[in-house]
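Hi everyone,

Forwarding the result from last night's run.
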Amino acid sequence: MSIGFALAIVALVATNVEVMFLNDTRMWCYSHRARESGEPYRCCVAAASLGTATLSVGTILGYLVRFGTIGPTGCTYGYRLWDRPFCHAIRTSLFLYVLNIGDSCMRKLLFPMIAATLVFTGCGGAEPVLTPGPAPMSTGGGLDNTGLRSVAVMAVPNVGAGTQATPFVYDFGNVDPIAGKYYLADRTNKSVDIFNTSSLSTPIIQVHGFTGIGATFPTSGPNDVTVIPGSPFVYATDVDNVRVINTSTDQITQSIVTSTSGLRSDADCYDSDDKIVMADNGADTPPFAAYISTATNTVTSKLAFATSAGLEACLYDPGTKNFFINNDGTPANPNGELDVIPAASVVAGAPTVSAQYSEGNCGPAGIALGPNEELVIGCDAPAGDPQITLIMNATTGAILKTITQVGGSDEVAYDARYGRFYTASRDWTSTGISGSGTVTPVLGVIDAQRLVWLGNVPTSINSHSVAADSANGDVFVPIAATATTAGGIEVFRLRS
């Protein structure tokens, strides 16, 4: 029987049909034609957890799995894995390969890709029936490719229902997957809020001592929170300062002066190789970046951007050993450029910009590093321009992909657990043109391996912050209060 099964696989593979995969609890299917063109075939189904679970399927060429019928509006939900009196149990902790035959959503489940054991059994009882849950929220053209569902809204003090007159004002967030903590720069409460990513409840604590809501954004804080992996310290930016929080005591232990202008240190990022935090003062004249040694908590050097219109998010890439920062605009690139600062120049005490890459009409804000030296750039384009998200090559600066299905973004994040980019797209519009149509804030979801947009999940007015937990794949998005619902941190999770 095992020989016949192997021959069946060889015969079907020889027909050059498409391969799909089952990852954790979600199956995504792509046609060969669609994959070649970079667009998903968009058909999906819920399935049993892999891990140590056993997935039973039908007879050798009859393990029919109906995922739905593809029509003009996508998959019709409600189909299930069919029962069969005679079955094979396929056990795997990794992926399953599936072959797609024809243009319907009828599939034949064939064989695990790696490290699988095929167990031939007679099914003593009925096989488990697996049914898809309701389609998750998505604005992806009615085709659900995100797999996300909302699992919790973590409460934040002073942003309960009816508090929209005093809105929930915050900035960037970050996750420490090792410590199991989510941090948010919370201006409403003049604090960095620390949440437990396991309990998903109210903040463990709020670390106060920040400026709060100022007359303008550049006079407000906190603004960003950078985690120092393997240590109890996080660095949070504020007006004129970067403040060091010791999470063992939940106290600010030091305030590092970066400026005396009364304007904020905005975004910051961490060079884990050289133990340096980069923090930008994008509203100063001229804008500049300060480099802080985490060994001494002192500013070791600064870099002025003489012709810059402002500075946005930064990151350190251990692959190229460069800092990258989004520049709002220069005479050469008025609507955005990506500036490269070699870490070696910072260590030498003389930081310099070694390369400047045009971002077109991006209007850059957030930045995140993907799995293969790709940088996702959150764009908020000038009025009248298409809203986009850029994927750039960190080595060459080339634009690898322009995503047109989501934009108007601020913070962006990469989830290493599931290989996805997320965009906090507060200014996304119904027309896809900046400043035109109805503003419809969304969480954009992009496949970081194939650089393909998966879908948009509706969020809340001004939802411009996103962080992903690489330990479990949870996604954290602050949401505003309404007249009837409290604000807080909405947590999204892949459907199970």
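The helical segments are 2-14, 32-37, 343-347.

Cheers,
N.
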